[in-house]
């Protein structure tokens, strides 16, 4: 784990070295020397310490504080303050003295080189946040709890919506039952259903047998055909709609199917003969 951390830090310092090498491009020979020689020495110290651990153990703690402010100031670039600031975040909970030197030097260099506050402020916020990892960890946990609460609330809302929809459906079905019990005969019941759902017409057609017990949609007649098994025979209850769009209302179709089954409360069956002809129409 320690080896991985050192390799990561060496990679970051190599990127910082390359960053200053790029900043040296286009400058005169004197400025190039003032940037490239210290930056090369800076990277060489850490590369040697990585390959031969312990040789610069004491010195390596302060190399960043010695070289980075100088290199950032010498390059005179609005973005050069990012080099010391990036490592000040890393050292904030490991070496407070070095971290403070890098932090305040990056602030001073950023203001001196004319860095935009829009760029400077987010990095300063990152540094301040790194000073209290426990706070960051607690905020992360709180955020996780909030996300989980949002998911639970969303799931509860979906379940509540589903239960509310089922409650409305059951209420409508109970209303159908009330209409069936309150009606004196089949015609009165079908008339009540017709008025309740604003249907064009309702027909009951006795049949000799049923090929299927599933309801069928007849788009040519704009109707719903519900097969019903009576105590003495079979019948088709046909609901005619005023609009073809009503054929796509699954809730309406299911309620009409249930209402068709309730005709068993009024008739046991129909006399033989005259099958496939309308016997009741409202």
List keywords for this structure.
282 residues; alpha+beta; Alpha-Beta Plaits; five-stranded antiparallel sheet; 62% helix
Write structural notes for this entry:
By secondary structure, the chain is an alpha+beta fold. It contains nine helices and five strands; from the N terminus they run H-H-H-H-H-H-H-H-E-E-E-E-H-E. Helix 2 runs antiparallel to helix 3 and helix 4 packs antiparallel against helix 5.
Query: Structurally, how many domains make up the residues?
Result: 3
Number of strands: 5
| Poorly predicted segments | none
Fraction in helix: 55-70%
Report the major sheet: 5 strands, antiparallel
Separation of the first and last Cα atoms: 84 Å
- Structural class of the helices, strands and pairings? alpha+beta
Keywords: Membrane, Transmembrane, Transmembrane helix
Transmembrane segments: 7-26, 32-51
Reconstruct the topology from this structure.
Layout: H1 2-24, H2 29-51, H3 60-75, H4 82-91, H5 96-112, H6 117-130, H7 133-182, H8 186-196, E1 201-207, E2 216-218, E3 223-230, E4 233-240, H9 250-261, E5 280-281
Antiparallel strand pairs: 1-4, 1-5, 2-3, 3-4
In short:
The chain crosses the membrane at residues 7-26, 32-51. The chain is of the alpha+beta class and 282 residues long.
